[in-house]
């Protein structure tokens, strides 16, 4: 059985990616990992079940993976993750191609479940237990480039936004111990990781359950003391939980990127209230003003939901005016997805799909214009850039304003070969939509 080969498909967010990396480490103890699914005896699909588009992608991927049973070596199809946790036996019944199904709290049962299923041949295995205490942590096999890694500092969520199913899938908010996080960061640094990206459903609440207070600033300070770590990046910071202490830490700590991801979702107080969000417009504007005042050249990313039930033309106009005023450096816009099991599912005044799509397109057009104008203003600036690869004659990487996979890139002209995973200084010479173009500084004669 130890000769069996396992391939994994990971879908969804970076938090799900961490689960996949833990799964890979667990599986490797007993089986051989392969990237080519045609060689795999066992295929694991780690699914996402957050919104309709993600659910459909997960189902399509499961069906595609099941084809490997007929065409190639696959003997066993394993489904894990949020879709499995959310729909459980219903999904297993609808998709008989699935042999083993495990929820988000049962990855430690993976090897045992695979072994049982193979030994019993016809019996299917199902484990999707709900938990408010389990935290997936432990050794990981990184699926990111060697120089960066996500660090999930907490599991679950207590915010209970009316559009979101995550608390029912992932359970209540529970922080990892600071000791375990520092130990993991030390191990990552020894592997060559330079950029640590802090993630959770809500990073700003870190420590509130374990230590009785928000401990994110202290965690950041301890990580910044680790040799080899050069960048610390913050994602998923809820606006109402961003403290003055956190702002001061970002401003004063040279290892913390002057970058923050704040999922605002909307700005109209009426809609924020319907969404179950705690923050309000006046507080949000005050926070953004403080961030920009205290943190030099901070880059703020946000996400916006359009078409939430009850969103009127007046609410949408208020949102447009806000975005024009704030000029966020990076912004994602998503159409509201009506999810069963959430309070918003039964709300009145559901917005038609065509209106959602029109509003999404309108906001993204505004944002593209904002980013293009900001990009032109960066011409002549010099940035430290983390080199990530080469495409044709240009190298590419990211500066502090760019989170991987969601923001733009810096394309680099260099007469010399650059080393992937190193930092170089780049002078910006042009911008193209969301990306920047520059030249390595030592090629200039000042």
UniProtKB/TrEMBL annotation:
Family listed: Belongs to the methylthiotransferase family. RimO subfamily.
Record's keyword terms, sorted: 4Fe-4S, Cytoplasm, Iron, Iron-sulfur, Metal-binding, Ribonucleoprotein, Ribosomal protein, S-adenosyl-L-methionine, Transferase
Domain MTTase N-terminal: 4-119
NCBIfam families referenced in this protein's UniProt entry, alphabetically: 30S ribosomal protein S12 methylthiotransferase RimO, MiaB/RimO family radical SAM methylthiotransferase
HAMAP family found in the cross-reference section: MTTase_RimO (MF_01865)
Gene Ontology biological process terms in this record: tRNA methylthiolation
Domain Radical SAM core: start-end pairs: 143-376
Originating species: Clostridium luticellarii
Binding site for [4Fe-4S] cluster 1: 13, 48, 82
UniProt name for this protein: Ribosomal protein uS12 methylthiotransferase RimO
Catalytic activity entry: L-aspartate(89)-[ribosomal protein uS12]-hydrogen + (sulfur carrier)-SH + AH2 + 2 S-adenosyl-L-methionine = 3-methylsulfanyl-L-aspartate(89)-[ribosomal protein uS12]-hydrogen + (sulfur carrier)-H + 5'-deoxyadenosine + L-methionine + A + S-adenosyl-L-homocysteine + 2 H(+)
Residues where [4Fe-4S] cluster 2 binds: 157, 161, 164
